[in-house]
Automatic annotation (TrEMBL):
Protein name: Short-chain dehydrogenase
Species per Swiss-Prot/TrEMBL record: Streptomyces uncialis
UniProt entry tagged with the keyword Zinc: no
Keywords on record: Oxidoreductase
GO molecular function, one term: oxidoreductase activity
């Protein structure tokens, strides 16, 4: 099926690894133009290749509104348009609430909220001019199913889910759709780093299989970044023109709410 993305332009944050990288590769394969960022610009260029007619890479921290504005401006100058944004950059803080400092609480909230507010504010004029403006916020099933070992991240994810709904209400009349993709456990750099940090006896394959069993994932395994990229691309697609304010879970069934 043609998703209708060809010759459209998108901005993807956190595109040097995991879900962001898989999404960027899928959108490039679909014939889109892309403006992408991560803090480490060298790794970004290594993963996605040199800038060209359809690719603008910028080293930018999504928490820096001026850097996000520069990225947006580079996209406008190169492509003359932006049809959507994938707010993917981020990470998580593994800590129960009594071990979480006030600074960490603030940093988690700041990362989850301002990473989205900064890009939406910067790109709004371009998204408004598109005939198919769309924002996809990469979130976590933790937003609705908090985990005590990820206290601040769970709360910040819930705040982002709430904000996404507000943005959908507010931007719908301008023709911009805003949706969430909520992840369960996806096999990316995040989990590889955690495995290394634990320095345990199990190799990664066995460690991740045990993780999936411990978390009771009905499909019995972690997901792949590519399995997240497709639902993101499909929510960006103009074929999803009547979907806004929605949440798509990509978690192999780990979300136990109804
Ligand atoms: P990875 O760690 O593999 O990749 C994260 C990407 O984001 C990298 O490109 C990183 O590059 C970039 N990044 C991080 N912070 C910033 C920042 N402040 N500004 C710009 N870029 C940034 O993560 P995943 O692919 O696993 O995760 C993608 C998203 O999905 C994240 O928001 C994550 O929290 C969320 N998620 C992931 C889950 C999982 O199981 N993998 C589960 C639930 C949610 P650099 O370091 O160079 O900036």
């Amino acid at each position: 099926m043609d998703l209708g993305l060809r010759e459209r332009a998108y901005l993807v944050t956190g595109a040097s690894s995991g879900v962001g990288l898989a999404t960027a590769r899928l959108l490039l394969d679909e014939g889109c133009s892309l403006a992408v960022c991560a803090r480490d610009g060298d790794r970004l260029a290594r993963e996605l290749g040199p800038d060209g007619d359809r690719l603008v890479t910028t080293a930018a921290d999504v928490l820096d509104p001026e850097a996000v504005a520069r990225l947006t401006d580079a996209a406008r100058r190169r492509f003359g348009r932006l049809d959507g944004v994938v707010n993917n950059a981020g990470g998580s803080l593994m800590a129960p609430w009594p071990d979480t400092t006030r600074t960490q609480w603030r940093e988690e909230l700041e990362l989850k909220l301002f990473s989205v507010l900064n890009t939406v504010e910067a790109t709004l004029p371009l998204l408004s001019a598109s005939d198919a403006g769309a924002v996809v916020n990469v979130n976590a099933i933790l937003a609705r199913q908090p985990e005590p070992r990820l206290a601040a991240t769970s709360a910040a994810r819930a705040a982002l889910l709430n904000l996404t709904r507000t943005l959908a209400d507010d931007l719908g009349p301008r023709g911009i759709r805003v949706n969430s993709v909520c992840l369960g456990l996806i096999d990316t750099g995040q989990w590889r780093r955690r495995h290394e940090a634990e320095g345990g006896a199990l190799d990664y394959t066995r460690w991740s299989a045990r993780l999936a069993a411990d978390r009771g994932i009905p499909l019995g395994r972690l997901g792949t970044a590519e399995e997240v990229a497709f639902p993101i691309a499909s929510l960006l697609s103009p074929r999803s023109a009547y979907i806004t304010g929605a949440t798509v879970d990509v978690g192999g069934g780990v979300g136990r709410y109804v």
